[in-house]
Design goal:
The complex is a heterodimer. Chain A is an all-alpha fold. Helix content of chain A is 76%, strand content 0%. In chain A, helix 4 runs parallel beside helix 12, helix 6 packs parallel to helix 8 and helix 15 runs parallel beside helix 18. Chain B is mainly α. The chains are: A mainly alpha, B mainly alpha.
Chain lengths: 507, 167
């Protein structure tokens, strides 16, 4: 073993010791490599002047247009969560489905899929589902164990169902590493990997998961009639149902659709999503006058899109459509301002902004820290070492892929997704991405793998969040047992995506 | 540390935190507003302005780096505390002090110190956006990096002192 290899080993072990010691992960991920680099300098295996590149790398992160979508998606998610739109939707559902275990379970699942699409933050989703979904599920006759499993599993859907922050971050890293390692391997014009590609790739696997969860619930839960009804089923006017669901659904379709159709960049779509969530949140709070103003703003946005479609390639600045377009824009702006005013008045906006900044700060702190890690890792020749080891594996890049999947699965027990993506992809990704393996497929596999790992007992994050929010009548073992079938379903879909890569690369 | 001196320091760091939070909130507002404007102008009217793209990029850069000290002041950076929570408050206090002295101060100090040459250069030419027709003032945005790094160090010190003072 060379001195350099010893230091690499020291770096990897130190990193895990540092993270597990309880230091903020950001600090451990940046601090341990720093200390190893200094020690390596004295041992003559690290050139300290390399560290001078660090600020320029951080500046690179600050000016990365791809990451701009992150705070906007977070803002959208936090707004929808704090505005209690999901709670309202579930209450309506509980009224419709009251008494039917199967119906209630399916409702919670569908609702989670929607929430997952709009927020994509595991912890928040699981806690919210426990708060609003657990009681209705139990009252409708869903066994405790199954209810726990369903909530944990549904809560992790946000990782995979686009638009998800996780996929934006994966797109950033995979895109970089793919281009770089393809060029190294002699392909000087690789197709760029965009966040939109990943979103498109994750759609089918995500929906497949929801479908399988649904089928499992459908088969294992009794029909309504066999259960003693504890909650009276009240008739709910279909308009109430539409009013509760349509706005959020439209918002998600607009955001996701515009990215998938390639009309908007992820940042633009995320910005639109954040503003849309702002309107929805204000709309839910306001009365008559304000309500119609905010609604008019939403309509105006729609009108603008229609006008644009009719005008074809000709810009609206010329022609008769200019005046309605201006009116629509002004109306929209007025509605947005009214919404902001309303949310400021009810003191919802300031806490939402602080929360958004906190979540963004957490994510960006890790990204900044991981940049120092990969600098030191490469400075110690880690990239060559990894390549060397990976070549010793049987099955070539497939062996490497399997190994990476295993590592990511294990890391998922102790680390959050952001940390794993920014540690594993730059350090181990090049080996897989320099060959013919589709980067989109690889990214979708990673995302699904992470999601499964967050669900797997005994360490899965979703389970911790569930335990922290759920009443003590459910013991840990019950939760584990409830989650187990969902982990099996997850692994089935993961296997399906491995066998049929087209599921991820169809678009 | 004497109590009066500490309370002065705590007040000072709280004030710095409020300032950083204000910067973040402004940046978030500008980012969201400008992106909305870009979308309306581009998809509504088919026009685009480089200046707006730059404004969004500037706001994002400032938001990203200032969010780090703001999050630190709110203990918002994730920890894996499955082991640490069993070892008690005393352990965590010593751990954080270690992290501050050997990790936080050197790493963020490095960010300030190694950035100064490029920053002085950016100031000397009053560097503007690389896009033709873009906004001026990129050198000011670049200055956000060392300022936020310094704020992170201050908030790191404040957090550790707070723990020791409470003990």
């Amino acid at each position: 073993m060379s001195v350099q290899e010893i230091f690499l080993l020291l770096l990897v072990c130190g990193l895990f010791a540092g993270i597990l010691s309880g230091l903020p992960a950001m600090l451990a991920i940046a601090g341990v490599p720093f200390l190893v680099a200094v020690a390596g300098h004295f041992a003559g295996v690290f050139d300290l002047s390399l560290l001078q590149l660090y600020p320029a790398r951080v500046w690179g992160i600050m000016s990365n247009p791809l990451l701009m979508a992150v705070p906007l998606f977070v803002l959208m998610g936090v707004l929808l969560e704090r505005a209690r739109l999901a709670e309202r939707m579930l209450q309506v559902l509980a009224q419709v489905m009251g008494g039917s275990a199967r119906g209630m379970a399916l409702s919670v699942l569908l609702l989670s899929a929607m929430i997952a699409a709009s927020t994509g933050i595991i912890g928040a989703t699981v806690v919210m589902l426990v708060m609003v979904g657990l009681q209705p599920l139990l009252q409708a006759g869903v066994p405790q164990q199954k209810a726990a499993g369903l909530i944990c599993a549904s809560g992790t859907l946000g990782q995979i169902i686009p638009p998800s922050v996780l996929l934006v971050l994966l797109g950033d890293q995979i895109g970089n590493v793919y281009t770089e390692s393809q060029q190294k391997a002699g392909n000087f014009a690789p197709d760029a990997v965009s966040v939109g590609d990943l979103f498109a790739g994750a759609v089918l696997p995500g929906l497949l998961l929801v479908l399988l969860y649904g089928l499992y619930m459908f088969w294992t839960l009794p029909k309504a009639d066999n259960i003693q009804k504890t909650v009276a089923k009240t008739r709910v006017h279909w308009l109430t149902l539409v009013a509760a669901f349509l706005p959020t659904l439209l918002l998600i379709i607009a955001v996701l659709g515009s990215i998938l159709a390639g009309v908007a960049t992820p940042t633009e779509a995320a910005g639109l999503g954040a503003v849309g969530a702002l309107l929805l949140a204000a709309h839910a709070q306001m009365q008559t006058m304000g309500k119609s103003l905010v609604m008019a703003a939403g309509m105006a946005a729609l009108l603008l899109v229609i006008l644009r479609t009719f005008s074809g390639s000709q810009p609206l600045t010329q022609g008769v459509l200019l005046i309605p377009a201006i009116i629509a824009s002004v109306l929209m702006l007025a509605g947005v301002l009214a919404a902001v005013w309303q949310l400021l008045r009810t003191q919802l906006l300031a806490p939402v902004a602080v929360e958004t900044i906190k979540i963004s700060g957490m994510v960006f702190g890790i990204i900044i820290a991981a940049s120092l890690l990969s600098l030191v890792f490469r400075g110690l020749g880690g990239d060559h070492e990894v390549e060397k080891w990976m070549q010793m594996l049987p099955l070539g890049e497939w062996g490497a892929l399997l190994l990476i999947m295993l590592i990511v699965f294990l890391l998922g027990f102790v680390l959050e997704a952001v940390e794993i993506i920014y540690i594993v992809v730059p350090l181990l990704g090049p080996v897989v991405l320099s060959g013919d393996i589709s980067p989109v497929w690889f990214a979708v596999l990673l995302a699904m793998n992470l999601q499964t790992s967050f669900l797997t007992p005994p360490f899965g994050f979703a389970l911790f969040y569930f335990r922290s929010a759920a009443p003590d009548t459910l013991n840990t073992l019950q939760v584990y047992k409830g989650v187990a079938p969902f982990v099996v379903l997850q692994l089935m879909v993961l296997a399906l995506v491995i066998i049929f890569p087209a599921l991820a690369t169809w678009l | 540390m004497p109590a009066t001196l500490y309370s002065k320091f705590a007040k000072f760091t709280h004030w710095l935190d409020q300032l950083a939070l204000w910067v973040c909130m402004t940046a978030l507002t500008v980012l969201t507003g400008v992106v909305l404007l870009i979308v309306v102008l581009r998809y509504g009217f088919g026009v685009g302005f480089i200046e707006l793209q730059d404004a969004a990029a500037y706001a994002f850069a400032v938001l990203l780096i200032f969010a780090v000290p703001v999050t630190l002041a709110r203990a918002g950076h994730v920890r894996v505390d499955i082991f640490a929570e069993r070892l008690g408050a005393g352990y965590l206090r010593k751990l954080d002090a270690f992290g501050l002295v050997f990790m936080l101060i050197p790493v963020f100090g490095l960010l300030i110190w190694a950035w100064l040459p490029s920053l002085t250069y950016a100031w000397s030419i009053q560097e503007a956006s690389v896009e033709t027709g873009g906004l001026p003032g990129l050198y000011l945005v670049k200055s956000a990096l060392p300022v936020a790094a310094a704020l992170t160090i201050v908030q790191g010190i404040a957090a550790v002192l707070r723990q020791w003072q409470a003990a």
